[in-house]
């Protein structure tokens, strides 16, 4: 059988970076093929070349035996290549049908299209109302829009970039059923994910990229997740060490925390209550957009609440702002690194000052002590292994993982008694992620109460003592992590958002 | 009659008074729907006013004057497009600079034309309709531009709502990264929207110097461009509401003149500032209504797009 797509020697360079070098592999019709690699391994560039968004410097592709070099995505779509994006591809203010029409070459008139959307979405068990505004949909529903958009064009090759990062375990199950149905119908799927267990469950073959080159290929079902990770990283990984920790008195407490989201599409908090003791780590799971950002803002002090809704060491601090809370020992690291955790165009030194000022005594009588600030910045860079040419470079010039290490390091180096982090290892490669998790565990061992908000379940199971989930702004009662099953976690996260019944119909 | 003001005349003259701001606001609406905030409307209008007048005087044809005005407005907007879309300059600063530049340049071009009268633009007499009592003088006694400006609103509304081109334009203004990822030419779409906005502002300006005043004086547009910008916000980026806004604000300016003539004791300044007060009130109301998503503003409004991501 001729392969569906053959990739032969693709290379692409950007100034200073070789994103892809002599990449070659092929996918058979109906095969589910995984593309594995750390951040910056060149996966995105590669799929952008296949989808016609980026032109290769060298190399050729063949689709069903014919030469294939799409100059733009519309040509790729015509030839039967469709892509579901990780972000950046839906329009909040447009409705479902309009969003679908934008991804098609020759969309039928709106009314006919709406009917087709209903038909196709039910056929694959992904029900959608074509008239709804995309901005009002849940993460899982938004993804359905993207998938249905692709399916309407009857693709031969479907590219999926990190499709499950925003889904609950049950929604992932439903997605996989859809993908298996597609694969059985002969559609090949190129699947990018960091979640190795998923790849082992779904994929027939895998190509592993490291620093833009193919370093291996394998049948994922025959490998363990650990082996796959080590092939990606190229070194042996050690899981974080979890020392026994003594629990102290309650350090952070939220009581019936109620507030509205500052973001019009955001979700407010409704009656959130929990307690974290010294030396304890509370993991907060949840699908994106269920109040995670708002929880961080409420705890850090960026959104105020009634005085006793948030307490640090028993003192009501709900009315205090971030600086006052820092003085009392609470540090926070939000999800968005550029523009929220760090000022993109300011140097690392300046960024160190911005949050470290109050607790490290870097400002005296309104004057900045630059010498001390530089020492502080250097200390973070050294202790947290931040790879940077110096402490005077702009924050935005660091890679995501390095900046994340800097941001987390900056907060943890302030000798905090309470730590709140949101998505601490989002978009960070495996080695840096392990270092960050270890740092959080070490801080808890030193007696801090830690709240880790994350969409990465494996991460939470690895570090958290207590596990809770946010769903629609409400938080479940924290339970000990040990002994939780995946089903229980899925239910805590809010199940499948109505997807299950839909699929029951279909089956 | 209303306090010495004839209502029929008032409505007829507000329709005329609204044409410049209606045209400019319609053009700006399209640019903003594509995600471009061009604060240079006033500058593009006045360049249109002076170039339209010069062309009409030399050619003797008002129609050629309007054509030249559209071309001049578009040409000036091209400067804005070059700076913001190619060199990624800040849109607010560039727009303000465009206005200042346009005011200065128009003064320079208009130096020999102060007080010169352009050839008159005829009124459209429609047999039967124009002679109707009351409705005749109100609706059917205008020049062709009054009707064209309303037609443009209808065209823009239909294109934005019903066509694929309109959908792509809205998509670009809503999320340029997504539009780019789907393979749409963000910069090209925005460039065209800016040019359309410039041409419409030029036409609006020419209406001031060729029909409404009609002659050249420095600063002839007198802030109409700013009102046009305010109308777009007032209309929450909806074409038919732009028409309502333009007639409302046009009405206020006519009323202000009439009240003065009728010897009313309201200081003129209150009426002169009222369009802006109304706009501020609308903005407050819009943002008070949560979930209204900032009053329907295009999400990418004023944000520059860079493809290398």
UniProtKB/TrEMBL annotation, chain A:
Domain ABC transporter: start-end pairs: 5-236, 254-497
Keyword tags: ATP-binding, Cell membrane, Membrane, Nucleotide-binding, Repeat, Sugar transport, Translocase, Transport
This protein's GO CC annotations: plasma membrane
Membrane topology: Peripheral membrane protein
Compartment annotation: Cell membrane
Keyword Membrane tagged: yes
Xref: InterPro entries: AAA+_ATPase, ABC_carbohydrate_import_ATPase, ABC_transporter-like_ATP-bd, ABC_transporter-like_CS, P-loop_NTPase
Single GO MF annotation: ATP binding
Superkingdom assignment: Bacteria
Protein name: ABC transporter ATP-binding protein
Species, as recorded: Amaricoccus solimangrovi
Automatic annotation (TrEMBL), chain B:
One Gene Ontology MF term: transmembrane transporter activity
Repeat found in the keyword field: no
Predominant subcellular localization, coarse grouping: membrane
Pfam families membership: BPD_transp_2
Protein name, as recorded: ABC transporter permease
Upper taxonomic lineage: Bacteria, Pseudomonadati, Pseudomonadota, Alphaproteobacteria, Rhodobacterales
Keywords assigned by UniProt, alphabetized: Cell membrane, Membrane, Transmembrane, Transmembrane helix
Locations listed in the record: Cell membrane
Transmembrane domains' residue ranges: 6-24, 36-57, 63-83, 95-114, 134-160, 191-210, 216-235, 242-264, 270-288
């Amino acid at each position: 059988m001729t392969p569906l797509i053959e990739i032969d020697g693709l290379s692409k360079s950007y100034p200073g970076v070789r994103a892809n070098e002599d990449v070659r592999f092929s996918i058979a019709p109906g095969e589910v093929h995984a593309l594995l690699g750390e951040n910056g391994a060149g996966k995105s560039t590669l799929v952008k070349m296949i989808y016609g968004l980026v032109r290769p410097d060298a190399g050729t592709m063949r689709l069903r035996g014919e030469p294939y070099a799409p100059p733009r995505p519309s040509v790729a779509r015509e030839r039967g290549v469709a892509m579901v994006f990780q972000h950046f591809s839906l329009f909040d203010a447009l409705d479902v049908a309009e969003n679908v029409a934008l991804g098609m070459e020759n969309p039928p008139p709106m009314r006919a299209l709406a009917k087709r959307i209903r038909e196709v979405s039910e056929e694959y068990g992904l029900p959608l109302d074509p008239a709804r505004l995309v901005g009002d949909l849940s993460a899982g529903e938004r993804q359905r829009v993207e998938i249905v958009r692709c399916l309407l064009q009857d693709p031969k090759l479907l590219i999926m970039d990190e499709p499950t990062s925003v889904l609950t375990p049950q929604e992932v199950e439903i997605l996989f059923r859809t993908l298996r149905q597609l694969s059985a119908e002969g559609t090949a799927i190129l699947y990018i994910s960091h979640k190795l267990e998923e790849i082992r469950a779904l994929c027939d073959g895998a190509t592993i990229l490291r620093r833009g080159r193919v370093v291996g290929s394998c049948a994922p079902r025959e490998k363990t997740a650990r082996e796959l990770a080590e092939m990606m990283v190229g070194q042996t990984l050690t899981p974080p060490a979890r020392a026994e920790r003594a629990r102290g008195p309650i350090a952070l407490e939220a009581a019936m925390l109620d507030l509205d989201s500052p973001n019009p599409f955001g979700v407010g908090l409704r009656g959130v209550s929990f307690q974290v003791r010294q030396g304890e780590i509370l993991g907060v799971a949840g699908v994106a957009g269920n109040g995670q950002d708002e929880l961080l803002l409420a705890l850090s002090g960026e959104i105020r609440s009634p005085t006793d809704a948030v307490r640090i060491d028993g003192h009501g601090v709900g009315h205090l702002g971030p600086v006052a809370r820092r003085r009392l020992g609470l540090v926070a690291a939000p999800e968005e690194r550029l523009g929220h955790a760090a000022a993109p165009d300011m140097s690392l030194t300046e960024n160190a000052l911005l949050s470290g000022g109050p607790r490290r005594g870097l400002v005296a009588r309104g004057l900045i002590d630059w010498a001390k600030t530089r020492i502080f910045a250097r200390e973070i860079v050294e202790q947290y292994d931040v790879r940077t040419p110096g402490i005077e470079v702009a924050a935005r010039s660091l890679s995501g993982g390095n900046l994340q290490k800097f941001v987390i390091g900056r907060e943890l180096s302030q000798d905090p008694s309470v730590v709140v982090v949101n998505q601490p290892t989002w978009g960070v490669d495996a080695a840096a992620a392990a270092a960050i998790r270890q740092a959080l565990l070490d801080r808890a061992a030193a007696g801090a109460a830690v709240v880790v908000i994350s969409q990465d379940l494996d991460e939470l199971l690895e570090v958290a003592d207590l596990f809770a989930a946010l769903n629609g702004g409400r938080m479940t009662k924290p339970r000990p992590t040990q002994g939780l099953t995946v089903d229980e976690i899925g239910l805590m996260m809010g199940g499948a958002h109505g997807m299950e019944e839909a699929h029951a119909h279909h089956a | 009659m209303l306090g010495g003001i004839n209502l029929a005349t008032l409505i007829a003259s507000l329709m005329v008074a609204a044409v410049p701001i209606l045209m400019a606001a319609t053009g700006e609406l399209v640019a903003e729907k594509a995600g471009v905030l061009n604060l240079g409307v006033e500058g593009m209008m006045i360049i249109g006013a002076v170039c339209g007048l010069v062309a009409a005087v030399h050619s003797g044809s008002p129609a050629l004057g309007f054509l030249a005005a559209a071309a001049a407005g578009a040409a000036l907007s091209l400067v804005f497009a070059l700076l913001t879309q190619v060199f990624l300059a800040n849109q607010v600063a560039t727009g303000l600079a465009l206005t200042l530049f346009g005011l200065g340049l128009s003064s320079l071009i208009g130096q020999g034309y102060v007080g010169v009268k352009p050839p008159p633009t005829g009124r459209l007499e429609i047999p039967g309709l124009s002679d109707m009592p009351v409705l005749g003088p109100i609706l059917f006694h205008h020049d062709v531009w009054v009707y064209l400006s309303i037609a443009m609103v209808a065209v823009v509304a239909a294109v934005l709502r019903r066509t694929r081109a309109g959908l792509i334009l809205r998509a670009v203004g809503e999320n340029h990264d997504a539009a780019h990822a789907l393979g749409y030419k963000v910069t090209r779409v925005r460039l065209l929207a800016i040019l359309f906005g410039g041409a419409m502002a030029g036409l609006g300006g020419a209406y001031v110097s060729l029909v409404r005043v009609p002659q050249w004086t420095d600063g002839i547009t007198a802030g109409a461009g700013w009102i046009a910008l305010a109308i777009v916000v007032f209309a929450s980026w909806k074409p038919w509401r732009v028409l309502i806004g333009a007639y409302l604000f046009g009405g206020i300016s006519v009323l202000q003149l009439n009240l003065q003539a009728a010897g009313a004791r309201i200081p003129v300044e209150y009426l002169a500032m009222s369009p802006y007060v109304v706009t501020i009130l609308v903005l407050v109301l819009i943002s008070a209504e949560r979930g209204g998503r900032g009053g329907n503003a295009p999400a990418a409004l004023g944000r520059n797009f860079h493809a290398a991501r």
